[in-house]
Structure prediction request, 329 residues.
Amino acid sequence: MSKTKETPLLVASKMGTVEMVQRILKKFPIAIQDTDCNEKNILLLAVEHRQTDVYNWLIGEKYPEYVFYHVDKHGNNAVHLAAMYQKLEVWRIPGSALQLQGERKWYKYVKHTLPPQSYVRYNNKGQTPRQIFVETHAKLLSDGTQWLVTTANSFSVVAALIATVAFATSATIPGGADDNGHPHLENQPAFDVFSITSLVSLCFSVTALVFFLAILTSRCRHNDFEKDLPRKLLLGLTSLFASITAILISFCAAHFFVLRDKFRTAAIPIYGVTCIPVVFFAFNQFPLYVDLIRSYIQMLPLRSYKVFYTDSSEATSSDQKKEGKEKDD
Prediction:
């Protein structure tokens, strides 16, 4: 046994190797009582290091109650450790805002899956899990709020510009109107496309602007990052993308009346080229869009295994290890 009192079972729990945990406990059931130098058992280590697979397997097995009642030498139970931030991006979602969302989901998941009587409310310092969560996630909350406000502010400017153009476009009648107010081109298919898409662009751009302004005026509390703020950002991005697409189609339809009949067929490829900005915008924002959808739908975010743990029980990321080697060189 090493000087840190880490048995193979405890190491496997920290590293998230479910198969090894299962085999060790099947062959040596008494190993469930193993603890490290901080008196943390297999459940506490799995919770502390965000090993979702190991934790889910443990709570699904019928182990003695003391496994779930266990506290470390500081009086921290599983919920305390779930609330304690490890200062590493352990979730497979980029950005401080989504990392905070993952931390919030993990904390609530552990809290609700353990029996209510299986943990004490205070540790040796007199702290509740909620107090630990607020204290250790203060910087992550600040970074996530700054990123979210900056992103919403940038997108709101774009949405406002599109709303301005869409309003001016929807109020303009191509070809003018007769004395009765009927458009001269009302029987043209392109006119119908122009009328509909200009109105759609106006509606979606205003909708996107409302969502982004709602983010800017939000109080940005910890629980807001779990569902409310990601949902607003997701709906705002969707509305913005729809408004950009609609305004380009509206422009092409209005420009179609300017061309002579012999040039209209040749102009179709040019209209296709005008869609390139929408394609670029979609590809640029697609990773963020996918991450928002995935993090919003999933009950628990996916664990990133770029983070590993050394023998001294200190968490390290592969990126940090590379930076350390470069400094040594």
